[in-house]
Design a protein that fits this description.
This protein has 2 helices and 8 strands; from the N terminus they run ααββββββββ. The chain is an alpha+beta fold.
């Protein structure tokens, strides 16, 4: 009986420890995408960047530029990378009509393997439908020459 109680208590402790009291960002994404009165439009200069060839162990950073082509402020509300070897950053403040913003991605090849690389960054904004833009960068990782 004591063993069962310890197992149940441990299970409950594990569940409560894993709960995150942070607000769910998808709720804000939904609220923003549902606010049709504040939709705007955006234009990316590139959605695909080829960084070329790097040696295993090198890091690179790519930058995607966007322009607010609408009449309301543009907000990049959620920027997520497809994997842990890519760290995104972006313009977090409002991008006013006619102004530009960015999404950049730092990639560390130590956390990958030699060969072709295909990485994506997903961006949600206050454009019609809360469009999820897919930004992609590619290249090749080679073993260092000995």
């Amino acid at each position: 009986m004591k063993k069962e109680m310890v197992i149940i208590a441990s299970f409950l402790l594990l569940i409560s420890a894993c709960q995150n009291n942070q607000p769910d960002p998808s709720v804000d994404d939904f609220r923003q995408s549902a606010d049709t009165a504040n939709f705007t439009t955006l234009q990316w200069t590139d959605t695909l960047i080829n960084f070329g060839t790097i040696q295993m162990g090198d890091s690179i950073k790519v930058k995607f530029l966007c322009y607010n082509t609408g009449k309301k402020p543009l907000f990049l509300s959620s920027v997520r990378a497809s994997c842990g070897c890519t760290i995104p950053s972006y313009t977090e403040s409002a991008i006013l009509p006619g102004d530009s913003g960015y999404v950049s991605a730092s990639f560390n090849s130590n956390r990958s393997h030699p060969g072709d690389v295909f990485k994506t960054v997903y961006v949600t904004s206050n454009t019609p439908g809360g469009d999820n833009y897919v930004l992609t960068f590619t290249g090749k990782i080679v073993q260092p020459i000995q």
